[in-house]
Amino acid sequence: MNADFRHVDTWLFDLDNTLYRVESGFMGEIERRMTAYVGRVAGLAHDEAYKLQKAYFAEYGLTLRGLVEHHGVEPAEFHAIFHDVSLEALTQDAELVAAISRLPGRRLIFTNADEVHARRVLEHLGLADLFEDVFHIGSADYLPKPNIATFEKLNAAHAIAPKTTVFFEDSERNLKPAADLGMTTVLVGPHAAASTAPFIDYKTNNLASFLSDARLKKAP
């Protein structure tokens, strides 16, 4: 059944592993740099640094948050290690560009990444001009999704009405607060089909086709 988005006038998209395929492997280099950084800051060998990285992510929703809380890391210093990551693994998807272009209403990025990373990736993917704004981790005062306060800050900043908003994410847990607020939720990625979470409205592993086939609000 084609998704029914005839009620939607605000389109909210996560960035990494949502607007490009997980299979690109792009996030692998991000992970490697993050593990190396955690090792330097905490004085740990690779395997222990990786465990700590994942522990902070599980506890705080963002490795950076744990580094700030426990090691006094400056967010700008942390994010700078990703600003020269090669984007070669990412390719433009003409079908996705066309599908997003046809969406009526506002389109926003909602990411736990910083602004520099988000805009680099969007430009490379040919998507930068299709979005009104990027609500990044700095916009959220470094309080990451899935914290409900971050969703509320986003809603206030952009006067978002949850009932007419749909949120696309590759992380199941980041969709829970969106659903609680009344947004329509779409889980994206290769593991989406296996999700049994009751707060997921739609699932897809092909965002371009999913959007192209969706029923949309007609222009007045």
Would you kindly provide a written description of the structure presented here, covering whatever features stand out?
Helices cover 43% and strands 13% of the residues. With 220 residues, the chain is of the alpha/beta class. The chain has two domains: 4-22 and 92-216, 3-Layer(aba) Sandwich (Rossmann fold); 26-80, DNA polymerase, domain 1. It has a six-stranded parallel β-sheet with strand order 4-3-2-5-6-7, sandwiched between helices. Helix 1 crosses helix 2, helix 2 crosses helix 3 and helix 5 (94-101) runs parallel beside helix 9. The mean pLDDT is 95.
What is the fold's blueprint, element by element?
Elements: E1 4-5, E2 10-13, H1 26-42, H2 46-60, H3 63-71, H4 75-80, H5 94-101, E3 106-110, H6 115-125, E4 133-135, H7 148-158, E5 165-169, H8 172-181, E6 184-188, E7 202-204, H9 207-213, E8 215-216
Parallel strand pairs: 1-8, 2-3, 2-5, 3-4, 5-6, 6-7
